[in-house]
Amino acid sequence: MPHSYGTRARTRHMFAKKFRQHGPIKLSQYLMAVKVGDYVDIFADPSIHKGMPHKHYHGRTGIVFNVTKSAVGVRVNKPVNGRIIEKRIHVRIEHVRKSKCQKEILARKVSNEAAKKSGEKAVLKRSPKLPKEGYFLQSAGEDGVITTIQPLPFSDLV
């Protein structure tokens, strides 16, 4: 049987609400403060069909370029034939979440500014997590003697 090419084709799990997450949208979603320049995640809410983005943009992160009464304009990068095109789409506020992608960067910026103001020299660069320090393992026996365990030889019981 041939598959369809509709706008919601092959979105059975993508546009399905999670277990015990059904019902009306919380009022805080409508009252979410969004400004131009904010990072937002496009997450389509399947219970509201108005202003729903195309399935390609579901789960993508973009930057707000326009705010209207009930929707936001978002700039999203889309790969097309080996190049990346910046798409500008308008999505209703129900299908948008504040992104947490900048949280770590902003926290590091605050800590770096505090380190600069303290006066002493501090390394502001990020460094990778180092491997664990080596150590010698103490034996668990009472007398400290290591016992070697050998496997029993195979014996046919037939």
From TrEMBL:
One GO process term, biological-process aspect: translation
Pfam families named among the record's database cross-references: Ribosomal_L21e
Gene Ontology MF term list: structural constituent of ribosome
Entry annotated with the keyword Chloroplast: yes
Keyword Ribonucleoprotein: yes
Chief subcellular location: plastid
Family: Belongs to the eukaryotic ribosomal protein eL21 family.
Name of the protein this chain belongs to: 60S ribosomal protein L21
Record PANTHER family: 60S RIBOSOMAL PROTEIN L21
Keywords: Chloroplast, Plastid, Ribonucleoprotein, Ribosomal protein
Alphabetical list of InterPro entries matching this protein: Ribosomal_eL21 (IPR001147), Ribosomal_eL21_CS (IPR018259), Ribosomal_eL21_sf (IPR036948), Translation_prot_SH3-like_sf (IPR008991)
Any single Gene Ontology cellular-component annotation: chloroplast
Record localization: Plastid, Chloroplast
